[in-house]
């Protein structure tokens, strides 16, 4: 049974994740061809499906600031993508109230041939804004991005720092009820980072909910009141930031340093195999209609 | 459970600006930096029409005759141009916009629909030119012209259905695009464009196969019947077009719905 994604079934700014389960088929990434489909039975190299989330429950109330921590492959990014509605669940349920804005992958969605201004229009459109709504915010976004006259040049001409500023400016001024941010704040220079933090704080002060995935524990301590620790696709700890972070530090020091790198599913598979845990059948929490 | 269909409708309404942006981008990106810009959208089909006329009307001299032969070809060719340009473009559309798919949640069908819309705009412009020319020169200004909008709407929905199916399938199985490209070549020749089935065969079975075995044929024939002959398409042809549209749109929708779920993960 496929998981459900419902918008506006809970109060504005609230997040409810129930028994969220999701696996990734590693072979999917390679792009299937008809030949592979026809010869599927002979095609078995590596794990079929790597579990990323194994029954995650999360209840976040409007206006909360929540960090998600965990080692690589623990399911942090998957959780954000599920909350953003980009990755559907295998089973379980996501309910989110109000508008969601996600800053997941900086370059994603930008066209290098179009100007910063045009990319802002497209960015706003992607999140379901009308032309009028984007135009109302356009000047704020441009000012925040500090792009100056570059805003009318194609993105080809931008430095990576400028791309970061543009991406952040769009998401930060969408006035979304739920902000999902993955690790990107570390990219800009110090001054811009502080500006981003201030902007996020202002958003939170006006009632938005923040979910932040980061490895920057100092940033988490500054920004988030609550922290959720994920481990192998499950919630290992959930509580006040100071408490959970000390638990997390303990977890990190207790084991070999985690490999810093991508969250590639193969890594997850290796970690799962090392932990001796096979894939468990997803728990089906179907609620009566 | 959740009112899925209702959600979808409101999603589409909420993403009107996104649709508009995608159409604009599609229009501009294609010929950005070119001097003639959007004019290329009309120049290419016109050149193609000219080449086919030269080939089949002047050089090869077929054994059948139709007065105002260029109009005879053009009035059916516009249909073929829409089909043959939209299907490959739709096949690539989801891959081309993979970055957008990974960024936010929006109804995925907006992407192939934007591609169809751009092609439909070209089609309408070209068809307008062909219709005015044909009707003026052939003197076919009569009531069957009223059926032209009906046939146009059916054709566009038919193509939209095929585009949904092909875009979804190609995103999953990358052979689909090349297969479509390969099929289009023979498909052109079995579609009655520079001939009528009765021109090239007397065998009833072969004629029926040419007329009904190819879902594009009734559309091409109907446009020609309305514009070039100034007559109404047969009831059979109209029924066939309605049926083909319903099947293409329904099938395309089902295929797309089934295949769109994991697009952000697999592209």
Automatic annotation (TrEMBL), chain A:
Residues 34-257 form the ABC transporter domain. GO terms for cellular component: membrane. Residues 263-289 are annotated as: Disordered. The keyword Cytoplasm does not apply. Keywords: ATP-binding, Nucleotide-binding, Transport. One of its GO terms (molecular function) is ATP binding. InterPro entries: AAA+_ATPase, ABC_transporter-like_ATP-bd, ABC_transporter-like_CS, ABC_transpr_TagH-like, Bact_Polysacc_Export_ATP-bd, P-loop_NTPase. Belongs to the ABC transporter superfamily. This is ABC transporter related protein. The lineage of its organism: Bacteria, Bacillati, Actinomycetota, Thermoleophilia, Solirubrobacterales.
Automatic annotation (TrEMBL), chain B:
It holds the Pfam family ABC2_membrane. Keywords: Cell inner membrane, Cell membrane, Membrane, Transmembrane, Transmembrane helix, Transport. GO terms for biological process: lipopolysaccharide transport. Its main location: membrane. Residues 36-259 form the ABC transmembrane type-2 domain. It is a multi-pass membrane protein. The keyword Metal-binding does not apply. The chain crosses the membrane at residues 35-56, 68-90, 110-137, 143-164, 176-195, 237-256. It is found in: Cell inner membrane; Cell membrane. One of its GO terms (cellular component) is plasma membrane. Signal peptide: none annotated. GO terms for molecular function: ABC-type transporter activity. PANTHER family: INNER MEMBRANE TRANSPORT PERMEASE (PTHR30413), TRANSPORT PERMEASE PROTEIN (PTHR30413:SF8). Belongs to the ABC-2 integral membrane protein family. This is Transport permease protein. It comes from Patulibacter medicamentivorans.
